[in-house]
Amino acid sequence: MEKHCIDSQVKGVSTGTTILAAIFDGGVVIGSDSRASIGGEYVSSKTINKVIQVHDRIFCCMAGSLADAQAVTKAAKFHLSFHSVQMESPPLVIAAASVLKELCYKNKEELQAGFITAGWDTKNGPQVYVVALGGMLVRQPVTIGGSGSTFIYGYVDAKYKPNMTKEECLQFATNALALAMGRDNVSGGVANLVVITETGVEHVVVPGDKLPRFHDE
Amino acid sequence: MAAAAATMMNFSQQISSKNDLVPDWTSQEVSTGTTIMAVEYDGGVVIGADSRTTTGAEEPSRTSCLCCRSGSAADTQAIADVVTYQLGFHSIELDEPPLVETAANLFRASCYRYREELTAGILVAGWDRRKGGQVYCVPIGGMLVRQPVSVGGSGSTYIYGFMDSNYKPGLTKDQCLDRNSLLESGPELGLEPGSGPGPVEPEVGPGFLLS
Predict the structure, then answer these.
(1) CB–CB contact B158 A153 (8 Å)
(2) Which residue from B76, B66, B187 is spatially nearest to B121, judged by alpha carbons?
(3) Cross-chain residue pair A175–B186, CB shorter than 8 Å
(4) What integer is the mean pLDDT of A72-82?
(5) Which end of chain B has a smaller Cβ tally under 10 Å, C or N?
């Protein structure tokens, strides 16, 4: 994830990672793998955390260079906390997504990044927003990103259902990440998942040996 | 005279393909955006493809063996024609239907020998008395490998996850064909978003059963 792989076979620019977010009945699950690689040849970290908290109930993850990710999310965190002080209330998820979108759009020449923002707010409940390359902002019930995501489009299209329970959604997200990590050489490690609901935030980490296994493993 | 000659040269430049008015696609080769899939089950194989491939995507080389083609339409047609001929000759010599492994090896021989010139990804599937239902994958470059389930074509990347999670060894024929499972949904899920009209019929394109 530190250097974006322009020589990857994947269509469009996306980098060594798999990220996803999905809405269930009452909340949202956001998750990613934990591998950072250089040029698809060397794993520089097996346990990197790509799911970043930008506010109490708002998380985001990014497909892109690690340096860009850290810089942009740091700026976003600052903007959001300032905004919530001004508004005297927790920021809306769309506010967080818009902050990221502004940064992506204004700096589209320098940045190569896609963001997934997921969270819960009192106005609209659980939401998932994706900021695509170039700065388009779109709201979706489920979304995937990163180089590993190409392998799970079919799985996500077939298996995602609206209004799942939390357990079903966690299993769906874990399976999707495990399938992507199984096929994509630059995604791997553990599955980092965060469950966001009205009542709070829960971190779930599924280590490599506890990930679901499939027919050829 | 010189002025006339200059005008003539200008005219021929206008119709060269470097001219903006001539669209790019006229100088590009026809390629198939494809998803192909083949699955072994207990007693045979099921093979299928999205129907947006060119007609004749499933080429009966012999009635007991089929192949699915992806990549350059011209290349794969040419290879399939050659293999059909070779298999026909071979089966006369043998005086019995050829083995699926033989057909797969013939594909591999052509794909490997001419690997620099060809762009062809082929799945060969069939049934014979020796090994039952078999699926062989001959990707670009000319490797040959037998696999219980295999996908190919440009749309295949999107359904690797679906295939890994849904396939189990020991499926029955009905399970392979079941609407919500492997073969019916696979090629449909592999259709690339926004890449033109989908399958002509609501069902996924033809699936050939061999047992």
Answers:
(1) yes
(2) B76
(3) no
(4) 90
(5) N
